[in-house]
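G., the chain you wanted modeled:
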Amino acid sequence: MKRHNNKLGFLTILCLIGLGSCTKSFEELNYDPNNAHEVNPEYLLSYAQKNAMDNTWDEWQNGRFGLLYSQQWSQPDYTEESRYQIRTNVNYNLWAAYYHDVLNNLEESVKQNEADLISGSPNKSAISKIFKSWAFHVLTDIYGDVPYGEALQGEAALNPKYESSQVIYADLLKTLQEQVEILDEDQSSYGSGDNIYGGDVIKWKKFANSLIVRIALRMVDKDPQAARTAIEAAVSSGVFQGNEDNALYHYLANAPNNNPINESYKSRTGDFSVSKTLVDYMKEVNDPRLAVYASPAEVSGEYVGYVYGSSTVINADQVSLPGTRIRAAEESGIFMSYPEVAFALAEAAERGFSVGGTAEDFYKKGITASMNYWGVTDGNAINQYIAANPYSSADWKNVIGVQKWLGMYMQGIQAWLERIRLDIKKPGGAQLFVAPVSGSLDQNVDFVPYRMTYPVEEQTRNAVNYRDAVSKIAGGIDSKGAKQWWMP
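Predicted structure as tokens:
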């Protein structure tokens, strides 16, 4: 929005004309797009993008879920979530927001564009489908099997069946590849309603191909040949090449369009700190990003992370809060970044895939790009850091994994998913993460959850399909301890 001079005053109007609640409480989750057919497709896209980021980056889904499961943050107060007791309404709000405010509006934008084939409609439809693929991938990686093919069919499917996450993966890859072929930079596209790229078709092609790399790499241990084929084709077509390609949501200075973390820290300054896990490791390797990721503790003036999963409540002035940039009103939210792609290509190269470079080259590019993104631009300092944390083919999972985890700071959900996929440890094999020190509050999880349980509302709202989905989970119970299909 900052880059493209966008304004979001229309969001209030959209809430009034039936795009769904602008609050985080929903009395009813209805897969119908609420008769939004008269709304400009650009508004539908913009509304979906804002809700997607607000419900991925905020204090609830990020602070009390993703950033805790990735162990980048901890809780000095209200510590239950770091011990895996998630509030049921928060879980439901994530599910509802993605289906109701993100996916339904994207589906409606596709329908409108395809029903009125004017200049730019094919590009607009393709962009909406690419962003739909991003949203569905987030949902299926959090929950496993989810409503998919029937989920956005309005009143015809108020009780949509759940589809296999493995089947969803295959369809997402197919959809993304098809949209890359459709996108045509010589034709018109979305304008300021696209708050990520302003309708830039070339950027959207890179985003789609980079998303293919994310999806394919996540399943690489279960279907290595399909993953290899998809990744090599995506790289050949064109993925992110630098931070200039990052898919960002640019927040504004004032509510309700400011960074939601900024808004939460206006009144809830003691709820979150940076974790001891993150601070101690960054101090151990002398990581210059620490001064950006965290603030010195007010009492000591030192960087002090709070122990993860403790039931002991302490004053926030004793530990490091997230850094001032992290809490800034206009700090962007990240849908996907070049550092993630560079580390993904490092892994792909190490696995023997043809991706246009060596694992070590991409590893260095990932570190450098992450440093640059967070304001560390001293080339000598970056080179010294890389020399002190060299690439090792013999220990690639940990070497790439820990730098990817550091490079994906604040992308809590994705950092958690990479943590459990790679089973990340420190280079050399020493344990990096800890179990909640006061013990887990979930009887099915000791160390780290592998998925989120389904919202309890689904047990009554979509009971038959819910029970069928649960029956397919290992052990036949809706457990955070059940591994996703793509996990080794």
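The radius of gyration is 21 Å.

Shout if anything looks off.
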